Amino acid sequence: MAVTQRLQKSWLFTRLVCYGCRIYFSTFRRNLSAKIAGLAAKPPKEPVDPSEVKTIVIVGAAFAGYYAAQTLASSLPRNGKYRVIVIEPHSHFNFTWVLPRFCVVEGHEHKAFIPYTPDFFANSPEGIVNWVRDRVVSVERHSVRLAGGDEIAYDFLIVATGSYVSDGLPSRVGADDKESGVELLRGMQARVKTANHIVVAGGGAAGVELATDAASQYPDKSITLVHSRSAVMHRFGLELQTAALDALRELGVTVILEDKVVPGSADGKCITLTSGKTIECDCFINCTGQKPASDIITGLAPKAISPSGHIKVKPTLQIADDTLPNVYVCGDVAETHESNPNSRIASRQAQVAADNVVLAVRGKTPKHTYTPKFGDGVIKLTLGLDRSITHFWDGKSELSFPGKETDLALMCDGAWSAVATTPFEDTGVYKGETVTPASLKLSKAIEEV
Ligand SMILES: Cc1cc2nc3c(=O)[nH]c(=O)nc-3n(C[C@H](O)[C@H](O)[C@H](O)COP(=O)(O)OP(=O)(O)OC[C@H]3O[C@@H](n4cnc5c(N)ncnc54)[C@H](O)[C@@H]3O)c2cc1C
User: What pLDDT was estimated at residue 49?
Assistant: First the structure.
């Protein structure tokens, strides 16, 4: 390796370590100040008039919305005048990271569904977080409409609806309750197990992980990965592209580049590509087509939807529409031009949006801004059941750390612990502080409009 290249890598490594330390200390400082605020807080002396209560509605409870709810619940003034309402159709937090693995490996599927729990809000005043299990179908200027037909008024709104795929697994589960999700994963495992010729469309992270897992679990099956670009993992550096391609080929996966599967062409025996090629296929798995879930905003703020379907935002993460200063957007659905949207970014954005809402309720101007950070591009990619590569690329130089994997469940116990839940104890569907929309009163500010 040339000396300049070696120096560049060392410099990159140093910056990466500093980035990690900065993130760790800023999270530590934030958590500490929230804890101190909690200890110092006194409950309101007199009962609060319900019409004075201001409502912050959060749509979606995953890496962005669930963390926004936690930040708000621990930071809003503790005078009984605020409530947070989370609206989420899923019975459990869907942990996306493990979905490609659990589409292949049997016996761990329940671990992808982490129960929502009041313990996540342990450092918050009792009753501040309210939960509505439903789906928002549209957003109006002062309220949201639910699929169940009800309407919930808001003073502030945080949209954290993430991404969706119409085909469900392996990128999203495609069901709202855990039982159906577990069944869908088992169904996919059975399809993979009984197939002879598997075709995977999409050479991004989900496609590469699923194809390499399937090939290492079932070395005798024919597995083909079809990708439209000239390289798999094309959004990342050359080292990762090469490592992924090498791993696929070593495991016997046939990789077809610069071609696409013709939608609807899978007939149970074969599949057709746009080049006209036909491949044997008795199991087709689509790992493409992830889209931002911005539909609920299109009626209210059509100009804020970008050509890619993301919701345009200001640096404060307020929606890019000056008439809606009380609407914030964070996570995968926000247009923040990330090359590698991921959970760390979603949670960091959630914190910015929530911190700005806290300023706004105090009558101050939102001043926290989100800027993409060096280090956001780190990715850990599994390349079969027993190995992975952690990769970082800053657009010029890159660092790769090959690793051995020993846990088939990809250490998802850590994710359970991170959201205050004992791995893998399912406490059931979150019912604490559940509200029915009919029991909610409009806040005074809204009634007056
Ligand atoms: C297969 C796969 C593997 C991944 N692996 C990693 C990884 O290893 N590391 C990493 O950092 N990132 C990973 N990611 C990326 C990561 O999952 C996303 O960046 C992250 O989930 C974004 O979080 P979010 O909260 O913005 O959106 P989402 O996770 O998409 O969640 C959105 C939430 O909003 C809810 N919602 C949607 N519409 C509505 C509505 N109308 N009303 C009410 N609620 C609604 C949904 O039910 C959902 O709970 C992976 C992604 C995939 C697909």
Answer: 86
Q: Which residue owns the Cα nearest ligand 1 atom 33?
A: 60
pLDDT of residue 178: 98
Give the residues across from 164 on adjacent strands: 291
Q: How is the chain split into domains, by residue range?
A: 48-167+290-374+410-448
DSSP string, 140-207: -SSEEEETTS-EEE-SEEEE---EE-TT-TTTS---SSHHHHHHHHHHHHHHHHH-SEEEEE--SHHH
Provide the CATH topology of domain 48-167+290-374+410-448.
Answer: FAD/NAD(P)-binding domain (3.50.50)
Question: How far is residue 82's CA from residue 75's CA, in Å, rounded to a whole number?
Answer: 11
Its pTM stands at 0.93
Which residues contact ligand 1 via a Cβ below 6 A? Answer: 59-65, 87-90, 94, 96-97, 99-100, 135-136, 160-163, 170-171, 205-206, 293, 296, 331-332, 341-344, 346
Per residue in 251-302, pLDDT (tens digit) is: 999 999 999 999 999 999 999 999 999 999 999 999 999 999 999 999 999 9
The SS3 call for residue 114 is: strand
**How far apart are the C-alpha atoms of 353 and 67, rounded to whole Å?**
10
